[in-house]
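Per reviewer request, we include the raw input and output of the structure prediction for the construct analysed in the revised manuscript.
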Amino acid sequence: MPTLNQLIRHGREEKRLTDRTRASDQCPQKQGVRPRVPTRTPKKPNSAPCKIAKVRLSNRHDIFAHIPGEGHNSQEHSMVLIRGGRVKDLPGVKFHCIRGVKDLLGIPDRRRGRSKYGAEKPKSI
């Protein structure tokens, strides 16, 4: 606890806030290349190998991004577009890959929530 004299001389220091989006440069989406294709297991009560992508963005930042949906065609050195949005179960994963854009294909035969997974509208019978 500082004395009154110390506070008069130095004052209180402002708490620095960390920037959660410094990798995205305040952009809504960013393009990147996948150098690796790892999987990761979630935090304690849940368990499943979750598909994530290590992405080197166009501004040279390396981040981890989650690949939503079941199955993907993404390989090493494929181009992906990422958006914000963290995954609560996976520590350090603060971005999502956008399906149906660049080299990451959408999910075929998906009926519900199609816009989130880059799926085409099914042909009416």
